[in-house]
């Protein structure tokens, strides 16, 4: 399987961005851990981050052949019908991940344009959420084929 990790806006600042909420790990640390896990699971992995909604949408279009995605849409979670439609339009199965528990935070973070389309949603587990999402997708896709 070839799987993808997609990170939305401001996640490039991880490590220094509101560490009380998002922790001290950098995005490079998180991606490195995911690459090690992918190697263990014997799956291919492509990671991408952008602050631009258009670039995220174009990336999804260009990677429509991926078997699955782990996506943290970050602030676009709460605003982007366009990124939601890109995922629906390419029909890539995805797990939605948030580092923080968005339901313990401001009310405007409680709604996601992605959750009703997601295979599953993980929030509040920090970077472990990405690894759990990747492990789950690997299992889910393997079982679907057998
Ligand atoms: C986030 C939660 C969002 O509300 C926020 O805009 C982010 C990160 C998270 O990972 O906890 O940028 O998706």
UniProtKB/TrEMBL annotation:
<feature type="binding site">
    <location>
        <position position="109"/>
    </location>
    <ligand>
        <name>substrate</name>
    </ligand>
</feature>
<dbReference type="Pfam" id="PF01220">
    <property type="entry name" value="DHquinase_II"/>
</dbReference>
<feature type="active site" description="Proton donor">
    <location>
        <position position="98"/>
    </location>
</feature>
<keyword id="KW-0456">Lyase</keyword>
<comment type="function">
    <text>Catalyzes a trans-dehydration via an enolate intermediate.</text>
</comment>
<keyword id="KW-0057">Aromatic amino acid biosynthesis</keyword>
<comment type="subunit">
    <text>Homododecamer.</text>
</comment>
<dbReference type="GO" id="GO:0003855">
    <property type="term" value="F:3-dehydroquinate dehydratase activity"/>
</dbReference>
<feature type="binding site">
    <location>
        <begin position="99"/>
        <end position="100"/>
    </location>
    <ligand>
        <name>substrate</name>
    </ligand>
</feature>
<comment type="pathway">
    <text>Metabolic intermediate biosynthesis; chorismate biosynthesis; chorismate from D-erythrose 4-phosphate and phosphoenolpyruvate: step 3/7.</text>
</comment>
<feature type="binding site">
    <location>
        <position position="78"/>
    </location>
    <ligand>
        <name>substrate</name>
    </ligand>
</feature>
<dbReference type="GO" id="GO:0009073">
    <property type="term" value="P:aromatic amino acid family biosynthetic process"/>
</dbReference>
<dbReference type="GO" id="GO:0009423">
    <property type="term" value="P:chorismate biosynthetic process"/>
</dbReference>
<protein>
    <recommendedName>
        <fullName>3-dehydroquinate dehydratase</fullName>
        <ecNumber>4.2.1.10</ecNumber>
    </recommendedName>
</protein>
<feature type="active site" description="Proton acceptor">
    <location>
        <position position="22"/>
    </location>
</feature>
<feature type="binding site">
    <location>
        <position position="72"/>
    </location>
    <ligand>
        <name>substrate</name>
    </ligand>
</feature>
<feature type="site" description="Transition state stabilizer">
    <location>
        <position position="17"/>
    </location>
</feature>
<comment type="similarity">
    <text>Belongs to the type-II 3-dehydroquinase family.</text>
</comment>
<dbReference type="InterPro" id="IPR036441">
    <property type="entry name" value="DHquinase_II_sf"/>
</dbReference>
<dbReference type="GO" id="GO:0019631">
    <property type="term" value="P:quinate catabolic process"/>
</dbReference>
<dbReference type="InterPro" id="IPR001874">
    <property type="entry name" value="DHquinase_II"/>
</dbReference>
<feature type="binding site">
    <location>
        <position position="85"/>
    </location>
    <ligand>
        <name>substrate</name>
    </ligand>
</feature>
<dbReference type="GO" id="GO:0008652">
    <property type="term" value="P:amino acid biosynthetic process"/>
</dbReference>
<dbReference type="InterPro" id="IPR018509">
    <property type="entry name" value="DHquinase_II_CS"/>
</dbReference>
<keyword id="KW-0028">Amino-acid biosynthesis</keyword>
């Amino acid at each position: 399987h070839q799987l993808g990790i997609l990170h939305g806006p401001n996640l490039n600042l991880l490590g220094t961005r509101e560490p009380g909420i998002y922790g001290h790990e950098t995005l490079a640390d998180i991606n490195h851990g995911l690459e090690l896990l992918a190697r263990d699971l014997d799956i291919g992995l492509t990671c991408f981050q952008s602050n631009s909604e258009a670039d995220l949408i174009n990336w999804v279009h260009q990677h429509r052949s991926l078997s699955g995605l782990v996506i943290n849409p970050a602030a676009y979670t709460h605003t982007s019908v366009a990124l939601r439609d890109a995922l629906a339009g390419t029909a890539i199965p995805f797990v939605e991940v948030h580092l923080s528990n968005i339901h313990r935070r401001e009310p405007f973070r409680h709604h996601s344009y992605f959750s009703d389309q997601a295979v599953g949603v993980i929030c509040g587990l920090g970077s472990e959420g990405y690894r759990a999402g990747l492990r789950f997708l690997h299992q889910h896709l393997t079982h679907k084929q057998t």
